[in-house]
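Predict the 3D structure for this chain.
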Amino acid sequence: MPEVLGKGFVAKSITFENTAGTDAGQAIALYSQADHSAFYLCGFRGYQDTLLAGSNRQFYRECKISGTVDFIFGDASVVFQQCSILASKTDRGLVITAQGRTDPNNPTGTVIQNCSVAAGPDLQPGVTAYLGRPWKDYSTVVIMQSFLDSIVSPEGWLEFQGTGSTRDATVYYAEFDNNGPGSATDGRVKWPGYHIITDSSDVEQYSVANFIDGESWLPDTGVPFDSGI
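Done. Predicted structure below.
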């Protein structure tokens, strides 16, 4: 399992893959803990737990991420921008994110902006995927300005196995200005912690500029980015 620790790490045009298969359980393709890390035109291939964005400030631009269960997870402050997020073939259910925030005062979370969420080439017809489930009590995920294909379940979000509804009120899950056949919100979960946002000022805090302070360090990486909403 490749692990990234050094501050200011930049990767471009490289694929990280874990070929352990659908029955292997957790099989991480990349574990990043590097502050000010940026990934551009990279691929992340795996099944369960493909990409562990563990901590600190991270940015992913025009990357392709594929997997099955919780395949984008961790407790970093991370923005995915113009990425392709693909659900792969599995017999175990599909969940895209499992954000792991444990402290309500920590400014961590997963932001998916101007991305595409769709079926991978090997996914069987008729299978649906959930946008996320609360791995930890204060799990935070914002999906905005993205294309959500028909694989996205009408409910959108899933309770974490064994926790019942105990985390429904403590999570922060939000959707803003998404499009595509899976973006309809009328059938979404009715959790206190789920939000349908209609005003862009309510998601400004999740922009690259504000959420990961991107304007102060991303220019030095050479990776393109959109700083605002």
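Helices lie at 208-211, 218-221.
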